[in-house]
Design goal:
The structure holds two protein chains of two kinds. By secondary structure, chain A is mostly helical. Chain A is 72% helix and 6% strand. The mean pLDDT of chain A is 87. The chains are: A mainly alpha, B alpha/beta.
């Protein structure tokens, strides 16, 4: 029984792995015989090359300790030993997830929904408790944070809210005008536009805009703080994240949304008045005269009164979503997306509930 | 004498109102492990970021493998990026990927022709070299402890068999046993692969046991550069107190 010799030559490096794999698999090595490794012709060997060699021999059933090593430099021997001790064979990285049956999928989602609802209610309760605590101890109010938020949420949103609402007013008056012209009743545009904008369009557009703009900002901000453990730090310092983070944001948006909606009312009506003047031959003075007669104050107030509810829903959804971000970057993105979707849905649902509850239009 | 792997010439950096580096120069020879030490805020991390082209210095030159990185076009810089690995101070693992995919990312990017089984073989080797248990591979970075995250990041930095390894505080956050294990692994890799390493550290045991050369940054300048034994003898207030802390342990 002779001895086998495996002579290594050239470069055993990462870039040549596929080539080395083919070369090695062509060699017929008998695991029952002693094997000598001859590194005399070796140019360079890196950890990947050494590992591949040792793993290949290991698959054949030849343990590294049984190899006879010849012609290697001290450094190459050190590398081989390091790789043999540390790296070793190829451990399969379990990639496949176990398939789940229908029951498991349904059950998993049911529990996820239950957990989500539970967490949401708990968040609502904690916010309520924090609010109650603040009412008993008004000194805890974070004025600085509140004013920062008032500026971010309210002041800086005015231009975009005005622009959106103005354009909605233009389109609304234009469409209504075409219909009314068929009956020769151009002046009825004022009735439709006034009620439509003040009661539905301005509150809804502003709230949807706020859900996208402010809700996303709340979630992303709180989520990034969570990733950075800043929220843990707030708790550790003996502060309540609800007092410091949630309540100022809640107050800011609840205060600002009605004001922004009022701005939107005016911008929308101005847009409609412009279209009425240009396309329908109703001078601005006549438009506003008629508006005063046909748009009761109560309709405007009804439109405005919905908005604090929208605002509270947006703030609570956004803050809760921000607090439940997990500690990775993708989670921030996912939660921000879900905030925008959920708060817009919530706004539209609440709006529908108001429409059903108070159907009478004066 | 072979050409330096990395070279910093008269580097000057103006950051937030003062000169962080005010004429820093040194060159790394192939196969040496050099440590950059200095107090907090002396611009060690900034210097590493400038070496890899993440930050542009206010003045002076940074050369990698003989090429001035400020003058390289995007393609050449991309090719250069294969040749070094950087370990960020807090790991900077991709949080949306499992650990194994983190390590596989540079391989996928730079060696797309590597078959999946071979890639897995390389990934599990690198994880093992960095001292991670096999079951860590399938975990998400957020599920790992700080020390484990550091090792996963090291595995990623090692993935492409780099010629130059830049390590920002590699042993901080590791227990002393793992830290010495890390030093030994690094030493073997350096000796057998001809790696060059530049690391920043506050670990005196690493400095004494592992490092060939210490470069001391103080007030924007290199105040000492040489083997640890020589540097530790230098009569300079900061250097004195830095090495004296060991006596009180």
């Amino acid at each position: 029984m002779g001895e086998q010799v495996l002579r290594l030559s050239g470069d055993w490096v990462l870039a040549r792995l596929p080539e080395l794999q083919t070369l090695l698999s062509r060699e017929s090595i008998d695991p029952s015989l002693p094997l000598q490794l001859d590194g005399g012709g070796l140019n360079t060997i890196d950890s990947c090359g050494a590992n591949h060699l040792i793993a290949h021999l290991g698959h054949l059933g030849i343990d590294f300790s049984r190899l006879e090593l010849a012609g290697f430099s001290t450094q190459e021997l050190a590398l081989l030993n390091l790789v043999a001790n540390r790296g070793g064979g190829v451990s399969r990285l379990s990639r496949r997830r176990r398939r789940r049956g229908l029951n498991q999928v349904v059950g998993w989602h049911a529990f996820a929904i239950a957990r989500g609802t539970h967490a949401g209610l708990a968040f609502l309760g904690q916010t309520g408790a924090a609010l109650g605590h603040l009412l008993r101890h008004p000194g805890l109010m974070r004025w600085r944070e509140l004013f920062v938020q008032l500026e971010m949420v309210g002041l800086r949103a005015i231009p975009i809210v005005m622009l959106m609402s103005y354009l909605i007013g233009v389109v609304f008056a234009y469409l209504l005008g075409i219909q009314m012209q068929k009956f020769g009743a151009n002046h009825l545009v004022v009735d439709g536009v006034g009620i439509g904008i003040a009661r539905e369009m301005a509150p809804l557009i502003t709230a949807v805009l706020m859900a996208g703009r402010t809700g996303a900002a709340f979630t992303a901000h709180l989520g990034a703080m969570k990733v950075n453990q800043e929220i843990d730090a707030i708790v550790t310092l003996g502060l309540s994240p609800f007092q410091v983070l949630v309540l100022p944001r809640l107050f800011a948006i609840v205060l600002m949304l009605p004001l922004l909606t009022f701005v939107a009312d005016i911008a929308g009506i101005v847009g409609a008045a412009h279209v009425a003047a240009w396309n329908l031959g109703i001078p601005a003075a006549n438009f506003y005269d008629r508006l005063r007669d046909v748009l009761p104050l109560n309709t405007v107030l009804f439109g405005l009164s919905k908005t604090p509810v929208f605002a509270a829903a947006i703030a609570l959804i956004a803050c809760h979503s921000g607090f439940t971000v997990r500690r990775d970057a993708r989670s921030v993105g996912l939660h921000t997306t879900s905030t925008v979707v959920r708060s817009i849905v919530a706004v539209i649902l609440i709006n529908a509930a108001f429409a059903v509850a108070y159907p009478e239009i004066e | 004498m072979t050409a330096p792997v990395a070279e910093v010439v008269e580097l000057r950096t103006w950051l937030s109102g003062h000169w962080v580096h005010d004429g820093v120069s040194f060159a790394l020879r192939p196969g040496e492990i050099a440590a950059l030490i200095g107090g907090s805020g002396t611009g060690k991390t900034v210097l590493l970021n400038q070496l890899v082209g993440l930050l542009t210095p206010s003045g002076g030159q940074v050369k990698l493998f003989g090429q001035d990185i400020a003058k390289l076009n995007a393609g050449a810089l991309q090719a250069l990026r294969r040749r070094f690995g950087l370990l960020f101070q807090d790991g900077a693992l991709f949080s949306a990927m499992r650990v194994a995919d983190n390590v596989a990312t540079p391989l996928r990017e730079h060696m797309p022709w590597l078959s999946a089984p071979l890639r897995e073989e390389v990934v599990s080797l690198k994880l093992a070299l960095a001292g991670l248990p096999p079951e860590a591979a399938a975990k998400m970075p957020s599920e790992l402890s700080g020390g484990m995250r550091k090792r996963a990041a090291l595995a990623r930095a090692l993935a492409l068999e780099p010629e130059l390894l830049l390590l920002d505080e590699p042993t901080s956050g590791l227990d002393p046993i793992s830290a010495r294990e890390f030093d030994r692994t690094l030493r073997v890799l350096v000796d057998s692969l001809g790696l060059t390493v530049l690391l920043t550290t506050h670990d005196l045991d690493s400095l004494w046991g592992l490092v060939d050369r210490v470069i001391v940054l103080f007030e924007g300048k290199v105040i000492a550069d040489g083997p640890i034994r020589e540097v530790a003898q230098i009569q300079h207030e900061w250097v004195r107190s830095y090495f004296d802390t060991r006596a009180t342990e």
